[in-house]
C-alpha cells in the first residue's frame, strides 16, 4: 500500500496530510499542523520530528512545499527549442528577472504547447538559501524527501484531481493564510497569473481589505490586457479568505465578476472523510495536493531539488567511503576464507600423510632395498662382462682389420685400451676399418705413424672400447 | 566532511568491526608460523607422491621379490668360502687351466682385499709368462667356462721379436665370502 505525506510549510506554520492509496482512490490517514515558535530551521525540524512522531505520520515519501512569496514565478513564451537549449534560455531569462545572484537560486520549469509555433513556459525560481534551509529542517526532522513544490501547485493538484470535469477555465483562486495572500489564475494549461504577498494589515493590525481590493483591481486590469477574450468568470476562496466579512462582494466587485460566481473552495468531500479529523488547518488543500503528487496521481512538473551543497557532497563521500570499507571487508573476508580453506587443506593433508605413513615407509624401504639389489646385480653383471672383454676385443679386431695387421703390444684394463701398438701395410685402410666398427671407433691415434724396416706402417692407439656392437 | 550523528555511529561500527576482525585473525592465527609459509605446496607434493607410491606398491613388491631371487643365483658363481680358502682354490684352478692350455707361467702375484661389494671380499692373482696367441686365447676361453666367476681385470701382451711368442701379464680376480 503506497503512502505519501504532503507538507505545506508556510511563514506562520505548517500542515501535514498523509494519504494512502487504496486501489485507485486516495484516503486520508492523518491531518495535522501547527505554528512555528522559531525561525531557526533546525529548531523547526525538531518540532516537526516530534509532531510527526506524536501523530504517527510516516516520515517517508514526503512532498514539502516552497513559499510562493519567497520565490519568483513567471510565464513566458519561447521559440520551440530542444530541452537543453530551452533550459538555458529559461535560466537566462530568470537571471534577468530575479534579484538574486546568478548561482544563488534554483529553478524549475514546465513547457506548454500552444496552437502556434511558440511554446509557453511556466517557471519558478527560489533562492538557494530558502531551499537549503527547508532541506536542513526536513533532515533534522528525519523526513525523507527528494524535491519541493511551490505551495500553490499543491492547491492546483488538489483541484485538478477532484474536479476533472471542471470546464470554467480560467478561474481565480484566492487564498489567505495567517501571514500571506496568494492570488492565482488557473487555466487549462497551468497557472496563467500568480501574485503572492504578505498580508496587508491596517493600523489596528487587522487584514486590510482595501489593500486587497487595490491588488485585485490591478490584477483585473492586467488580465483584461492579457486575456481580452476569455476573462475569468469564477473565483474560489481558500483559507481565511472565505471567512472575511463582506469579502465575497468586495472580491467580486474588484475582479469584475458576478458575486454568485465567487465561492468557497470545494471541501474535501471526495476523500473518505474521517470524523475524528480536523480539516480546517490553513494550507490543508495545498498539503493534500502535494500528497497526491507524492502518490503519483498528478504531476505538476515543477519540482525543485536542493542544491548539491557541501553536506550532500559530504554524504556522497561518506557513502563512497562506506563502499570502500565494504570492499575492504569483502577483500579481507576473501583472504580469511582462503586462509581458512588452506588451513583445513593443510590439516587434511597432514592427516593423509599420517594415515599412510607406515605403509609408505615400508614401500620406501622396499624401494631402497630394490635399488641396492639392482646395484648389486649391475655389479655382478659387470664382472661377467669384464671376463669377456678381451675375447670380444680380439674377435672384433680380427673381423675388421685388414690382412697382415699385427699387434705387437696390448694393455687392456677393463674396457680401457691403455696401449695398442702394431703394424699394418696401410694405416689408412686400418683406421678406416676401425672407424667403421662401433666397438673400436673410440680408439685414437697416439704418437706418429712410422714405417719400419719391412716397409709396414707402425701405429699406436688408445681409448675406451665402445658398447654399441651387441657385445654388451 | 560533515557527518550526521547517525553516519558517525555507522562509521564507528564499521571501524570497530574491522578492528575485531583484525584482532581475531591477525592476533591469533592469521600470521603463519615461521617456516610455515609455502609448506602447503610441499604437502600437496608429498601426498601426491605417497598416493603414487601406494598405487605402485604391488609392482614394487613383485620387483623386489624377483631381485631377491636373482641376486642369490648370481652369488652362486662366487666362492662361498673365506678368502684364504678361495685363494688356494683360485691358484690351483689357474695352475690347472694354464697347464691345460699350455701357458708357461714365470711368476704369480697374489692380491688380497681388493675393493668388492658388501659382504664379499675380492681376491686376485696376476699371472706372467710367455705363450703363443692360440694358447692365450684358449686359456681365456677356458676361464669363461669355469664354475666360479673369474674376472679378467687387466691384460698386458707384448709380442717378442724374432719368435712367435707373446709375453703376457694377466690380472684375474674372484669374489669370496667375507669372514664374519
Shape of chain A: rod-shaped
Q: Tally the helices of chain B.
A: 5
Shape by Cα distribution of chain B: rod-shaped
Looking at how many chains there are and whether they match, the oligomeric state comes to heterodimer
Instruction: Please state how the strands of the largest beta sheet of chain A are arranged side by side.
Output: 3-2-1-4-8
Largest sheet of chain A: 5 strands, mixed
Q: Termini separation of chain B (Å)? A: 93 Å
CATH class of the largest domain in chain A: Alpha Beta
Strand order of the largest sheet of chain B: 1-2-4-3
Describe this structure in words.
The complex is a heterodimer of chains A (472) and B (180). Chain A has 472 residues and is of the alpha+beta class. The two termini of chain A are 98 Å apart. In chain A, strands 3-2-1-4-8 form a five-stranded mixed beta sheet. Chain A has a five-stranded mixed beta sheet with strand order 11-10-9-12-13, with helices on one face. The model of chain A is unreliable at 468-472 (pLDDT under 50). Helix content of chain A is 41%, strand content 26%. In chain A, a hairpin with a 2-residue loop joins strand 14 and strand 15 (416-424). Chain B has a domain at 83-177: Alpha-Beta Plaits (2-Layer Sandwich), CATH 3.30.70.60. Chain B is built from five helices and four strands; from the N terminus they run ααααββαββ. A four-stranded antiparallel beta sheet of chain B has the order 1-2-4-3. The longest helix of chain B has 26 residues, at 5-30. The radius of gyration of chain B is 38 Å and the shape is rod-shaped. The relative contact order of chain B is 0.12. The mean pLDDT of chain B is 85. Classes of the chains: A alpha+beta (472), B alpha+beta (180).
Amino acid at each position: 500500500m503506497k503512502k505519501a505525506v504532503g507538507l505545506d510549510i508556510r511563514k506562520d506554520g505548517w500542515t501535514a496530510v498523509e494519504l494512502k492509496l487504496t486501489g485507485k482512490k486516495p484516503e486520508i490517514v492523518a491531518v495535522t499542523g501547527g505554528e512555528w515558535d522559531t525561525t531557526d530551521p533546525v529548531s523547526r525540524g525538531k518540532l516537526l520530528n516530534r509532531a510527526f512522531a506524536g501523530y504517527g505520520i510516516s516520515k517517508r515519501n514526503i512532498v514539502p512545499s516552497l513559499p510562493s512569496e519567497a520565490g519568483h514565478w513567471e510565464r513566458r513564451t519561447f521559440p520551440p527549442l530542444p530541452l537543453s537549449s530551452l533550459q538555458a534560455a529559461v535560466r537566462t531569462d530568470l537571471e534577468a528577472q530575479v534579484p538574486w545572484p546568478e548561482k544563488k537560486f534554483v529553478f524549475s520549469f514546465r513547457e506548454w504547447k500552444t496552437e502556434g509555433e511558440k511554446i509557453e513556459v511556466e517557471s519558478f525560481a527560489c533562492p538557494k538559501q530558502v531551499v537549503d534551509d527547508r532541506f536542513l529542517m526536513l533532515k533534522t526532522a528525519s523526513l525523507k524527501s527528494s524535491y519541493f513544490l511551490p505551495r500553490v501547485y499543491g492547491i492546483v493538484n488538489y483541484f485538478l484531481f477532484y474536479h476533472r470535469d471542471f470546464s470554467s477555465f480560467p478561474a481565480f483562486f484566492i487564498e489567505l493564510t495567517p501571514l500571506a495572500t496568494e492570488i492565482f489564475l488557473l487555466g487549462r494549461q497551468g497557472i496563467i497569473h500568480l501574485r503572492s504577498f504578505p498580508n496587508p494589515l491596517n493600523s489596528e493590525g487587522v487584514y486590510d481589505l482595501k489593500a486587497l481590493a487595490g491588488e485585485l483591481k490591478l490584477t483585473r486590469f492586467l488580465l483584461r490586457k492579457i486575456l481580452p477574450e476569455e476573462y475569468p468568470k469564477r473565483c474560489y476562496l481558500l483559507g481565511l479568505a472565505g471567512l472575511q466579512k463582506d469579502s465575497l462582494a468586495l472580491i467580486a466587485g474588484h475582479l469584475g465578476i458576478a458575486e454568485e460566481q465567487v465561492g468557497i473552495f470545494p471541501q474535501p468531500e471526495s476523500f473518505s472523510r474521517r470524523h475524528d479529523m480536523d480539516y480546517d488547518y490553513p494550507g490543508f488543500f495545498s498539503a493534500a495536493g502535494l500528497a497526491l503528487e507524492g502518490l503519483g496521481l498528478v504531476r505538476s512538473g515543477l519540482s525543485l531539488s536542493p542544491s548539491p551543497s557541501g553536506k550532500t557532497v559530504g554524504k556522497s563521500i561518506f557513502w563512497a567511503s562506506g563502499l570502500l570499507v565494504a570492499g575492504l571487508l569483502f577483500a579481507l573476508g576473501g583472504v580469511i576464507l582462503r586462509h581458512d580453506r588452506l588451513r583445513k587443506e593443510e590439516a587434511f593433508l597432514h592427516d593423509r600423510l599420517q594415515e599412510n605413513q607406515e605403509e609408505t615407509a615400508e614401500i620406501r624401504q622396499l624401494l631402497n632395498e630394490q635399488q641396492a639389489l639392482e646395484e648389486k646385480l649391475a655389479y655382478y653383471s659387470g664382472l661377467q662382462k669384464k671376463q669377456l672383454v678381451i675375447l670380444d676385443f680380439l674377435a672384433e679386431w680380427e673381423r675388421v682389420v685388414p690382412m697382415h695387421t699385427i699387434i705387437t703390444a696390448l694393455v687392456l684394463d677393463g674396457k680401457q685400451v691403455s696401449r695398442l701398438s702394431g703394424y699394418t701395410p696401410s694405416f689408412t685402410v686400418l683406421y678406416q676399418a676401425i672407424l667403421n666398427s662401433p666397438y673400436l671407433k673410440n680408439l685414437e691415434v697416439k704418437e706418429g705413424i712410422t714405417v719400419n724396416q719391412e716397409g709396414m706402417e707402425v701405429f699406436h692407439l688408445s681409448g675406451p672400447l665402445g658398447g654399441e656392437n651387441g657385445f654388451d | 566532511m560533515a557527518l550526521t550523528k547517525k553516519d558517525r555511529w555507522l562509521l564507528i561500527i564499521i571501524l570497530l568491526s574491522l578492528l575485531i576482525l583484525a584482532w581475531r585473525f591477525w592476533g591469533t592465527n592469521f600470521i603463519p608460523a615461521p617456516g610455515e609459509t609455502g609448506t602447503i605446496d610441499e604437502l600437496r607434493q608429498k601426498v601426491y607422491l605417497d598416493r603414487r607410491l601406494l598405487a605402485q606398491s604391488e609392482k614394487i613388491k613383485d620387483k623386489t621379490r624377483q631381485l631377491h631371487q636373482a641376486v642369490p643365483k648370481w652369488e652362486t658363481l662366487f666362492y662361498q668360502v673365506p678368502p684364504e680358502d678361495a685363494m688356494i682354490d683360485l691358484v690351483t684352478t689357474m695352475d690347472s687351466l694354464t697347464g691345460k692350455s699350455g701357458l708357461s707361467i714365470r711368476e704369480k702375484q697374489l692380491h688380497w682385499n681388493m675393493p668388492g661389494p658388501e659382504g664379499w671380499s675380492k681376491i686376485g692373482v696376476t699371472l706372467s709368462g710367455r705363450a703363443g696367441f692360440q694358447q692365450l686365447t684358449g686359456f681365456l676361453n677356458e676361464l669363461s667356462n669355469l664354475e666360479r666367476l673369474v674376472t679378467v681385470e687387466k691384460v698386458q701382451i707384448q709380442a717378442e721379436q724374432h719368435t712367435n711368442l707373446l709375453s703376457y701379464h694377466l690380472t684375474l680376480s674372484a669374489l669370496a665370502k667375507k669372514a664374519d
